[in-house]
Amino acid sequence: MTKRHKVGNRNISQLLSLTMRGSGFVQIFKDFSNWSTVAVVPHVANANNKISRIFWIAIFVFVLGMFGYELYILIAKFFSYPATVNTEILFQKQIFPVVTVCNMNPYKYSVVKSNSAFQGVKSLMNAYSAAVDGTYTTDKWGLYEEKTEEYDLDARAADALVLEANLISETNKAPALYTYADLVQDCSFAGAPCAESDFKKFIDPVYGACYSFNEDASLNYSVSREGIQFGLKLMLTVTVRKSQTKTGGATDFLPTTRLAGARVGVNSRGNEPGLDSNGIDAGVGYESAVSVTLTQHVRAKRPYGKCLDREPEATDYYQVCLYFCLSALPYYIQDYTYTLETCFNGCKQRDTVAKCNCANPRMALGPSDTACQPVKADLDCLQTLKGNQTNSNPNIDLLVECSCSPPCDESTYTPTVSLAQFPSTSYYVATSSTAGVGSCSSSNSNFGSKSACQTWYNNNGMILQVFLETLSYELYTETAGYTVSNVINDLGGQAGLWLGLSVISVVEMTGLLLVMGAFCVSGGAIKIAPDDDEIENDHRIKDVEDVKKEIDHMDKRHGEMDSSDDEPEDKKEEEKKVQ
């Protein structure tokens, strides 16, 4: 019996504790509603009737739902990481772009025929000529099979030439390459002469020896005035012979060379020239005036953008996983600044390696890639990769399959080309250079007459002028369009509109949560209202009681006086007589 009695007492104690805790929460909420600045809450707590309270509760639920909806929109907008593009038009002194020139005839045919290092190229040229004439039966490149399709034959021979030349070392190639003196007869920048030291030489797999003006970072070629007079002027010749055809009918041009002229590239310093995709053809017998305008892009990095500073290297495991594995970005080109062109070339090279088990020498090779061989099987595979966009097996879709991202900082030059005949019928072709064939003056012993000299320049020479069209350029800067600061500002506006919240309101609710938390942790032991002793000893309560008693006394006195004034006159007369 005693044990059961103790258990019952404990249950009663717990029940009383829970009851006190519940009433404590109610008291806390009542107190909070009386002094809270949160909209609608005081109206709900102080409603006079049930209908009024239900009305204000419905209003509170509505505004709370609207605020939740707006909050969802703000959060979704922030995590979409929008970006804004600011456009500025600037006008200032500019660094002159890099100008690259190459002879469209990559190798001197006279050297190819006589140099044993070029035996494979020589055999290819013979097979190509025989295939064109229809007199050749078999070859390792598959030219004969294409002899009836002129375009396919030409493309097959061009690809085979690149593969054959790739087997020759740069040292052995040197005799057949065009030197700077062979290609550039006269050079001037803004009217002042320039020299071979202002050019950087490199070997292109398609165009042979190329020369880039202003590529060296130690050079300081810049312009503060626009126009043709303040740019680069080059007089180029495409052959070292007195004519394109030597005496006896032998030509110094390869049979596969389609055009007589120069391939020209204009790009920013450090960028890949992109001659095969972005180059300009400058033909002999013309002056090619190339005016360029500069455009700069500064793009936002992740997560507000998808730009890259460089392609990941094979040892950068984090970069490879983040960019290469997820976005299929290549890592082939490390010598140049990262651009979309380098990314696309690397992606195409990866696709070539995957489908042909060899790499195309037209593009940079990876560290473990093996170049395709000049044989029919490899050439057939490379031919299929060119694809037909109209059938069910199209070429690689660079925009979809490569997922290349633009560079974070990019400077591009947009060229505009105009042509004029060179030389005119009466112009004697003045040149300050003593190399080459010289000017068409009477003292030039290389030609029998001025007209013969002019004819030679018309067949072999050209003028190339590259200049800035204007010193103004457009700068596109991509920045974060919606930051944490914007979220806070918009959140404050929506909270104030729908709930009437402010910083003070947030502090109030924080205090409410702290009080409720402390009340729960303490098990309801925290006082939420003063007890009787505290009320009795509070001098403020005593003062209020004294004031109340005094007011009650004054009310009583006024009541007695009012009642005496209301007595009848006869009664008052009797009281006076008695007195």
UniProtKB/TrEMBL annotation:
<keyword id="KW-0407">Ion channel</keyword>
<dbReference type="InterPro" id="IPR020903">
    <property type="entry name" value="ENaC_CS"/>
</dbReference>
<keyword id="KW-0915">Sodium</keyword>
<keyword id="KW-1133">Transmembrane helix</keyword>
<dbReference type="Pfam" id="PF00858">
    <property type="entry name" value="ASC"/>
</dbReference>
<keyword id="KW-0813">Transport</keyword>
<keyword id="KW-0325">Glycoprotein</keyword>
<keyword id="KW-0894">Sodium channel</keyword>
<dbReference type="InterPro" id="IPR001873">
    <property type="entry name" value="ENaC"/>
</dbReference>
<keyword id="KW-0812">Transmembrane</keyword>
<keyword id="KW-0739">Sodium transport</keyword>
<feature type="compositionally biased region" description="Basic and acidic residues">
    <location>
        <begin position="537"/>
        <end position="561"/>
    </location>
</feature>
<keyword id="KW-0406">Ion transport</keyword>
<dbReference type="GO" id="GO:0005886">
    <property type="term" value="C:plasma membrane"/>
</dbReference>
<dbReference type="GO" id="GO:0015280">
    <property type="term" value="F:ligand-gated sodium channel activity"/>
</dbReference>
<feature type="transmembrane region" description="Helical">
    <location>
        <begin position="54"/>
        <end position="75"/>
    </location>
</feature>
<comment type="similarity">
    <text>Belongs to the amiloride-sensitive sodium channel (TC 1.A.6) family.</text>
</comment>
<protein>
    <submittedName>
        <fullName>CRE-ASIC-2 protein</fullName>
    </submittedName>
</protein>
<keyword id="KW-0472">Membrane</keyword>
<feature type="compositionally biased region" description="Basic and acidic residues">
    <location>
        <begin position="569"/>
        <end position="579"/>
    </location>
</feature>
<feature type="region of interest" description="Disordered">
    <location>
        <begin position="535"/>
        <end position="579"/>
    </location>
</feature>
